[in-house]
Amino acid sequence: xxxxxxTADVVQSRMMSGETETLPNRLSKLHHPQLVAGFTxxxxxxxxxxxxxxxxxxxxxxxxxxTCRPLHQRIGIGLGIHTGRxxxxxxxxxxxxxFRARSALDELKSSRQPRTKIVTGGEAALDQLLNAVxxxxxxxxLDWTEAQWEAVHVYEAAGTYAAAxxxxxxxxQNVHKRCQAAHWNAVREAEEALRSAASLLLTLDG
Length: 206
What we know:
alpha+beta
């Protein structure tokens, strides 16, 4: 079974202990059709979840950051083949994808900025391409205001500016302005590019 493992840690978690304590409950409410082992916490400030397929749902990275706000995360991503039984607790699992996600996260440990890195186990050139797109997305989302995060999240779920405006209690043009200021169209295009590029990985060594 092809899987994508996402392993993250909270940046400067000791300074945000109050927010970190409420995080497990918030993560339990994060649902996505591709999520086969939901995000849970371990070691105090580490988060892990497993998705089916190889980066078939890059939007989950953004949804994870939305769910965790105002906390910031370093996120490592690993791809691989899982041959054993999948359990609901990702911390009980192991294999190449988990090792690659951990390797990616370890490479980010020295950064105090919310960053994302992927290790696919495939060609180095493809990893370089995917990581370049992830860096651009990280930098765009780092500048989002709380209002922009809300507008993007609600608009994506609602499907139209009018429906999102009704949920947020603001005018449709204000939802549009917030999504435009967040460069939402560029973000979605980049996420689609990640999805397409990952499909180029026809084989992995496990």
